[in-house]
Amino acid sequence: MAFDIEMIRKVYENIPARVDKARELVGRPLTLSEKILYSHLWEGTPTQKFERAKDYVDFAPDRVACQDATAQMALLQFMHAGKDKVAVPTTVHCDHLIQAKVGAEKDLAVANSQSKEVFDFLSSVSNKYGIGFWKPGAGIIHQIVLENYAFPGGMMIGTDSHTVNAGGLGMLAIGVGGADAVDVMSGMAWELKFPKLIGVKLTGKLNGWTAPKDVILRVADILTVKGGTGAIVEYFGEGATSMSCTGKGTICNMGAEIGATTSTFGYDDSMRRYLNATGRADVVEAADKIADYLTADTEVYANPDQYFDQLIEINLSELEPYINGPFTPDRGTPVSKMKEEAAKNDWPVKVEWGLIGSCTNSSYEDMSRAVSIVNQAVALGITPKAEFGINPGSEQIRYTIERDGIIEAFEKMGTKVFTNACGPCIGQWDREGADKGEKNTIVHSFNRNFSKRADGNPNTHAFVTSPEMVAALAISGRLDFNPITDTLINDNGEEVMFKPPYGDELPTKGFDVEDPGYQAPAADGSNIQVVVSPDSQRLELLLPFPAWDGKNITGAKLLIKAFGKCTTDHISMAGPWLRFRGHLDNISNNMLIGAENAFNNKTNTVKNQLTGEYGEVPAVQRAYKAAGIPTIVVGDQNYGEGSSREHAAMEPRHLGVKAVLVKSFARIHETNLKKQGMLALTFVNEADYDKIQEDDTINFLDLTDFAPGKQLTLEFVHADGSKDIIMANHTYNESQIDWFKAGSALNLIAAGK
Q1: pTM of the model
Q2: Is 95 a catalytic residue?
Q3: Which among 66, 401, 427, 624 is placed 20 to 30 Å from 347, CA to CA?
Q4: Exposure string (b/e) for 587-603, b if CB count within 10 Å is 16 or more?
């Protein structure tokens, strides 16, 4: 039986009447996305039509999921909220704090030792507040959710940007910051601006070397890293129904890389097969009763241009494998063009490492298709030219592929099998030699390839592709190898060629596992004590942020004017910093150390206007805070792209930054700033970015009149006494302005408002 089956049945009981009413109010057929949105309104049955990209709407998600790196801060905030138990089904998954180095067994033992304090904290908090706890080694959060919790037509939020993975099972699954999760765990409404809708019509059928990963790599190439901002991407067509459920999950997962709110697919036979295979026949039985409500109305997919704000069509029969990168996941190159592109851009063509796994591509089908290439290499007598590593998505996947001989086949090629965890995908990779900073190329099946993300080396050129292409490129040792057309020379000097990959969608013998790694919470957690040592360097109880004093912010200094791409990796790095995710003051020492200063084109060196000297960003900001001087941060386009990590908002808030003024924001980061009581502002005129100078002092002229839809006026006083008046937009509504006034959204929850 599925987890929370009664909750799922209740959701399905409500969907038909709510969707029928929404269809009546909207006055036309509905997309799947609209059906899920309107059936999850906080008010219950819809009473009004909402305007896309304009109306803020309160929703009631069905569940919450947190990974260990973000769960620490989320649960510390939840403890501050003063509730006895979570209001909706919630889970915590320990997958981020396990470093890949030697192999699964030793790496997991090291993690359990080094992070014992954090794991014990998460376990005890989960036990106390009715939260399901998945132990270290159980698997990657999004694979676990897909295998156990996701269900067609549901809505969930998760404190990780790749929560969207559950769209592979027909959900609207949305990545959020921890404060948003606290709202839902506390029994409150969750607010979202009603999204725009992007339709992707898939015709034809995948064949040969082309995989579901290539669909999203192509979509990312089309839309770029910000093209999906504020939108839900809904996939449909014969190509959609022809691919596996986990393949759909891959596509939805990497939708985070185009800035999309989430992505989803309509309920179909592939989902039925997957639900049955993962022991959830009861969900299939319930879903089949309302199947028409779990996909778009027929007219929508017949005439999609009438119902979506943007429409993309991809013929899967003509699609070829893509290799995206380096340094950004939206730079797409078809495999047939890689030789030319690599030469033109001076990319290192020698592949040093091939890595398969992450929440994007660690399913049974992924592993079986990749191992089909490995088996061919062994049979053909080819010694791989690059090192190779895999991360199974869950203990259920690992146990099953071990049973079916897949792990043994990988190991014949010298593959390192890492823990069922995120590992290299999030910088948790102790890669030998990375500290030398040498220019090199790696290929992986992950989702992000920002500079320094995998191994900390800014000169590592990381390219994203499908698991089967990773295998082929790693074995050949060359980025410009095209397995569709090119041959290799085996150990006997013979010219050989790979056949297209093959893999089972689901294990023919079924899934199996001895210990999935799940810990159910106590029925009554009232007597469970959660202890955080005051001397801990890993965990720190939170204090409320101060409320706004009701006055204009004046005399503020410019901390940094960030130039170009500034992701959450640049604002709050992961990798070795993950160990401080539960200690706000300690992790604040990484604030903006990866951002490029527009005035000197260097990272982690900004001018301290108190001394005239240059220093590290956190140190300079701490000096301003000690002196009681407010500061602002200025940024470029799509500021805060990437992870949902709210630390990128909490760190500047903790250290005294008052406002972030940029050309445009990524959705989750803008919300995180608002939740923490920060001012998230955008230039009315983007060219004003160029007017801001290094020694500026900033005065807000009309913050006392802060109101929805009303621009704010900022005065930038330059060192020579001249001034520029710059207008700023914001997207705050009344309740969000209340967050700012109170000091944070959490302060209002704690006050019972």
Answers
A1: 0.91
A2: yes
A3: 427
A4: bbbbbbbbbbbbbeeeb
